[in-house]
């Protein structure tokens, strides 16, 4: 319900409602992770790190959403949001790697290729954000590839995360009507919260029950 409330508030472009509801889904995931007792402390810390970085990124992406289109402040918020989300992707990658997930070319290559589309859109419309958004896209693709090697739920979560972030760039630069922007924002938020839930749930499940052998 928290994710639905945050998605509706964001799609409605109600800044106050969005600011109140957007932190709720991730806060609940953090509380659930803290209550998990059959997860190794390092893995719990990595999951909480991913959630914490993501919540900081969410703050800046909320600001980005409501800054004027084409403004320097909008670009600055996007860069800061991507920087914090880079931390989240690193935490997720280490956590999945500890569970035995490995990069596979057959899954990494198409995920990297998918990030080429938003990179092209940015190069044409906002090249000044590429120095941050380019590396972030590679980290996101890497996280999605590792998540895909760790189980079905995490695979779906990784792909949804990519789809959400790709939609952010397309909404920002290619959606010209208010209706299209609201529809894309609903997709961005709904797929993002679903992705985070699937990734955290996957990391909260004992590795032995997923068929993935934890490393180290």
Structural commentary:
The structure is a single chain. With 216 residues, this protein is mainly alpha-helical. It has eleven helices and no strands. The longest helix is centred in the middle third of the chain and has 27 residues. It is globular and about 45 Å long. The N and C termini lie far apart (37 Å).
Shape: globular
- Distance between the terminal alpha carbons, to the nearest Å? 37 Å
Q: Which spans of ≥5 residues are poorly predicted at pLDDT below 50?
A: none
Q: Characterize the largest beta sheet: strand count, sense, and whether it forms a barrel.
A: none
Give the SSE map:
Elements: H1 2-11, H2 15-21, H3 23-35, H4 41-66, H5 72-98, H6 105-114, H7 116-125, H8 130-148, H9 152-173, H10 178-204, H11 207-210
Helix pairs in contact: 1-2, 1-10, 3-4, 3-10, 4-5, 4-10, 5-8, 6-8, 7-9, 8-9, 9-10
Summarize the structure.
This protein has helices spanning 2-11, 15-21, 23-35, 41-66, 72-98, 105-114, 116-125, 130-148, 152-173, 178-204, 207-210. By secondary structure, it is an all-alpha fold.
Throw out a few tags for this protein.
216 residues, 81% helix
